[in-house]
C-alpha cells in the first residue's frame, strides 16, 4: 500500500511517498522503502529506497535512483541531493542531453544545469553499449549549452582511435559555435574512417562556417569547408568544398556554391557552380543519393529584372555529364517577355529569346545560333 505525506515549510511543499515509511524522530529523518518518491517544486527523486532529512532537506537514494528536474533526467546507482541548494552527487550517473548521452563514474551537480563529471564519456549513439564514444578524465557539462572535456580519447568498438588534449562541443538547441561530433564508420572503399572532425563557427545571425578534416584509412586525409549565409530578403547562399590528399599519390577535389542577391531596384543576380576534379570522385566519396543527383553538373550566372510589365533575363549556363563527358550550355541566353493581355476578346502574349548554345562531346564541337 502506497503511503503519501506532505510537509509544509516556508510556504513550500515537500511531498514523499513509499510502500513503507519509518520516521526517526531523533535524527529528523524518514526512511522510505519500496517505490520511494520525493517531490519538491520542479524536482522529483525516485528510487527503490530513500532517506529524507527533514531539517537539511538532503535526499539519499539507493538502488538505481532517478533525478528529474524539469525535463532533465539523471540516472545512477546511488545518489545524494539537497533540495534547497540543488547540489548533489551521483555514482555511475547517466543523463540525456539535447544531442546525446553522457555518463560518468562520479557526476556532481555543482549548480543548476551545471555538472562536473569524473571519468566520463559522451556519445550520440543511443545504444546501451554505444559503437563509439568520447572518454574524458573530466567533463564540465552546461546543460542546454556546452560540454568541455579533457583529456579526450575517441573509442570505436571500445578500441582507442585517437587522443586530444581537450574537446568542447555545443549541446543546446539551435545554432551554436563549437566542435562537431565525428562520424565513425567503415566500408570497402575508405576502410575505417573518422569524418567530420570539424569546428562549427556561428559568425553572426546571418552566416556560419564549418572547417574540418576527414581521416580515411585507405584514402588519406580530406580537408572540408562549408559556409552558409542568409540575410532576408537580400542575400542567401552556401558553399561547400572538399580537398583530398590520397596518401600523397593523388590529389582530388570538389566544390559546390550557390548565391542569390536581390537588389533594391528589383534586379536579381544568381550564381551556381558545381565542380569536381574527376568523374569518379562522387563514386568514391559520396553516398548513393548524391552519386545519382550529381552525375550532371550545372553552373550558371544569371541576371533578371522587370521594367514595368516587361521581364528581362540574361543567363550564361554550362552543363556537364561527368559520366559521358558531354558538355553543353548557353553562352548566353537572353529572354524578353510580356504578360498576357486581353485583345479583341482574346489573349495576346509576347516573348523573345536570343540564344547561343554550344554542345561539346569528346573532341567534337557543335554550334548553333
Please, could you describe this protein's structure?
The chain is mainly β. It folds into 4 domains: 1-86, no CATH class; 95-174, no CATH class; 183-294, no CATH class; 296-369, no CATH class. It is 3% helix and 72% strand. The protein contains 2 helices and 29 strands. It has helices spanning 281-285, 288-293, and strands at 3-9, 12-18, 20-24, 29-40, 43-53, 58-62, 66-69, 72-75, 78-82, 88-97, 100-111, 114-123, 132-142, 146-156, 159-164, 167-170, 178-179, 183-187, 191-204, 207-216, 220-231, 235-246, 250-262, 268-276, 296-307, 310-321, 326-343, 346-361, 364-368. The strands form 2 sheets. Strands 17, 18, 19, 20, 21, 22, 23, 24, 25, 26, 27, 28 and 29 form a 13-stranded antiparallel sheet that branches. The protein has a 6-stranded antiparallel β-barrel with strand order 5-6-9-10-8-7. The longest helix is centred in the C-terminal third of the chain and has 6 residues, at 288-293. It is elongated.
Amino acid at each position: 500500500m502506497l503511503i503519501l505525506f506532505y510537509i509544509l515549510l516556508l510556504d513550500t511543499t515537500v511531498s514523499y511517498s513509499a510502500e513503507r515509511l519509518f520516521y526517526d524522530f531523533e535524527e529528523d529523518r524518514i526512511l522510505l522503502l519500496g517505490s520511494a518518491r520525493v517531490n519538491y517544486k520542479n524536482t522529483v527523486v525516485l528510487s527503490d529506497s530513500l532517506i529524507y532529512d527533514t531539517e537539511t532537506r538532503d535526499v539519499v537514494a539507493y538502488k538505481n535512483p532517478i533525478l528529474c528536474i524539469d525535463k532533465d533526467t539523471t540516472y545512477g546507482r546511488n545518489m545524494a541531493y539537497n533540495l534547497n541548494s540543488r547540489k548533489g552527487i551521483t555514482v555511475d550517473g547517466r543523463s540525456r542531453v539535447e544531442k546525446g548521452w553522457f555518463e560518468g563514474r562520479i557526476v556532481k551537480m555543482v549548480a543548476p544545469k551545471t555538472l562536473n563529471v569524473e571519468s566520463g564519456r559522451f556519445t550520440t549513439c543511443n545504444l546501451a553499449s554505444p559503437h563509439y564514444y568520447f572518454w574524458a578524465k573530466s567533463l564540465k557539462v552546461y546543460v542546454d549549452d556546452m560540454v568541455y572535456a579533457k583529456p579526450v580519447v575517441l573509442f570505436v568498438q571500445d578500441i582507442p582511435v585517437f587522443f586530444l588534449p581537450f574537446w568542447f562541443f555545443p549541446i543546446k538547441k539551435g545554432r551554436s559555435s563549437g566542435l562537431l561530433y565525428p562520424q565513425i564508420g567503415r566500408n570497402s572503399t575508405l576502410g575505417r574512417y573518422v569524418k567530420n572532425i570539424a569546428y562549427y563557427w556561428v559568425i553572426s545571425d546571418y552566416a556560419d562556417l564549418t572547417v574540418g578534416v576527414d581521416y580515411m584509412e585507405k584514402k588519406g586525409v580530406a580537408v572540408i569547408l562549408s559556409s552558409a549565409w542568409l540575410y532576408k530578403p537580400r542575400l542567401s547562399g552556401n558553399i561547400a568544398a572538399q580537398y583530398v590528399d590520397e596518401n600523397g599519390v593523388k590529389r582530388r577535389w570538389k566544390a559546390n556554391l550557390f548565391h542569390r542577391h536581390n537588389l533594391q531596384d528589383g534586379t536579381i543576380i544568381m550564381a551556381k557552380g558545381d565542380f569536381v576534379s574527376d568523374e569518379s570522385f562522387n563514386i568514391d566519396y559520396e553516398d548513393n543519393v548524391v552519386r545519382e543527383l550529381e552525375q550532371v553538373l550545372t553552373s550558371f550566372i544569371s541576371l533578371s529584372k522587370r521594367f514595368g510589365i516587361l521581364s528581362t533575363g540574361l543567363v550564361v549556363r554550362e552543363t556537364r555529364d561527368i559520366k559521358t563527358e558531354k558538355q553543353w550550355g548557353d553562352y548566353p541566353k537572353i529572354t524578353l517577355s510580356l504578360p498576357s493581355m486581353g485583345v479583341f476578346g482574346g489573349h495576346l502574349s509576347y516573348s523573345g529569346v536570343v540564344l547561343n548554345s554550344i554542345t561539346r562531346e569528346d573532341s567534337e564541337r557543335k554550334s548553333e545560333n
